[in-house]
Design brief:
The protein is of the alpha/beta class. Helices cover 47% and strands 14% of the residues. The protein has a 6-stranded parallel β-sheet, with helices on both faces. α4 links the parallel β5 and β6. It starts with a strand and ends with a helix.
Length: 202
């Protein structure tokens, strides 16, 4: 039996997916929104976390690290993500978090089941339709920290607010913004946000 924790912020979608997955005789499914995911991982101890990369909280960035905690004597669950090719920034975050499975959100439910089973066995699963997204992710010039800074800036946060949220000094935030502007070829902060959103990095 494979214990699955389904993480998705859209209640209706999450409920329907969980119900559908539960019909599989070898899957036991628990579901939770992102805000409760970290706590459920400890309680359920899933074999696989199947997580949607769109997160309505945490500045829109999925806290993937919280799904696979290290240490404490617990075996971290294997991570499978529900992704879109047009969001290479999120694909890059999932790669950095060590995700084994990548299921296209525009694919079929059968692909999700296949992905869960493969990831549970420790095997990689990637929908071929996500290939273009991975190519774009590889070309993306921004680091994870720069993406975090830029995401907060895109939400209208000031330098002081970004510094407080990410536990950085004001000078460090300004240095990150200067690097982001340079790497994106932008004229200023607003232009960097526009370019990054257009590329699907945010």
């Amino acid at each position: 039996m494979i214990q699955v924790l389904l993480v998705h912020d859209a209640c209706l979608v999450r409920s329907v997916l969980a119900e559908w997955l539960s019909r599989e005789p070898d899957l036991r499914v628990d579901d939770v929104p992102w805000r409760g995911a970290a706590g459920r991982v400890g309680a359920v101890r899933p074999d696989v976390c199947a997580a949607d990369l769109d997160c309505s909280e945490a500045s829109g960035l999925p806290p993937l690290g919280e799904l696979c905690p290290r240490g404490g004597g617990l075996v971290p669950p294997r991570l499978l993500v529900l992704a879109s090719a047009h969001r290479p920034g999120l694909l890059k975050r999932a790669l950095e978090a060590g995700a084994l499975g990548y299921v296209d959100k525009e694919g079929t439910p059968e692909q999700l089941v296949r992905g869960i089973r493969k990831v549970a066995r420790g095997e990689r699963f990637v929908n071929s339709s996500l290939g273009f997204g991975f190519l774009k992710a590889a070309e993306m010039p921004l680091t994870r920290r720069e993406l975090s800074v830029l995401t907060l800036a895109a939400e209208g946060a000031s330098v002081a607010e970004i510094a407080g949220n990410l536990h950085l000094s004001h000078g460090t935030v300004r240095n990150y913004m200067a690097a982001i502007t340079r790497k994106t070829g932008a004229r200023n902060r607003v232009d960097a946000i526009r370019i990054s959103q257009g590329q699907g990095w945010l």
